[in-house]
Amino acid sequence: MNIIEEKLKGMGMSLPSIPPAAGNFIPSIRSNNLVFCSGQGPYINGKNLYLGKVGENVTEEQAYEAAKIACLNCLAEVKQTIGDLDKITQIISVRGFVNGASTFTEHPKVINGVSDLLVALFGEKGKHVRCAIGTSLPGNIPVEVEMIVEVEA
């Protein structure tokens, strides 16, 4: 097992199986030394672990955890494309989408679940640019994440 997956194991986590595509697209694609990941939600073991709007029937803390699961799904996409997460040289960009109640305004705190996990796993290579956007999401999931990573040539 590689270094990143060992770190995940030490944190009590592992990479899930990639969820089936919900449309006519692929989970991730490599172009030169970049891997682009399709958006992922908190889907694991055949179901979404959290459903609902943040600030309504999903707490900010639950949404933070949901964001980490979505991040793990993105990393599973990357692994499928390149074979080994240790080949990641930099997390470039994270886009986080939060399905919040109309009064919810703490979208960045939810997406910190992704950023905190990536920095814990990759250190300086895990630091990235990002945005956190409030929107409605398919299937009433509370969070969706997509990312771009740089990998060894």
Which labels suit this protein?
single chain, two-stranded antiparallel sheet, alpha+beta, 153 residues, 3 helices, 7 strands, five-stranded mixed beta sheet
Report on the architecture of this protein.
It is a single chain. With 153 residues, this protein is α+β, with helices and mostly antiparallel strands. Helices cover 31% and strands 25% of the residues. It is built from three helices and seven strands, in the order αββββαβαββ. Strands 1-2-7-5-6 form a five-stranded mixed sheet, with helices on one face. α3 links the parallel β5 and β6 (129-134). α2 packs across α3. The longest helix is centred in the middle third of the chain and has 23 residues, at 60-82.
**Residue windows where pLDDT falls under 50 for at least 5 positions:** none
Radius of gyration: 14 Å
**Run of helices and strands:** HEEEEHEHEE
Oligomer: single chain
User: How would you sum up the major sheet?
Assistant: 5 strands, mixed
Beta-strand percentage? 15-25%
Head-to-tail CA distance between termini: 21 Å
Arithmetic mean of pLDDT: 95
Number-wise, the strands total 7
Shape by Cα distribution: globular
**Count of DSSP H/I helices:** 3
Biggest sheet strand order reads 1-2-7-5-6
Q: Assign the structural class, choosing from mainly alpha, mainly beta, alpha/beta, alpha+beta, or little secondary structure.
A: alpha+beta
- The helical percent reads 25-40%
Write the layout of secondary structure elements.
Elements: H1 3-10, E1 28-31, E2 34-37, E3 43-44, E4 47-48, H2 60-82, E5 88-98, H3 107-122, E6 129-134, E7 143-151
Parallel strand pairs: 5-6
Antiparallel strand pairs: 1-2, 2-7, 3-4, 5-7
Helix pairs in contact: 2-3
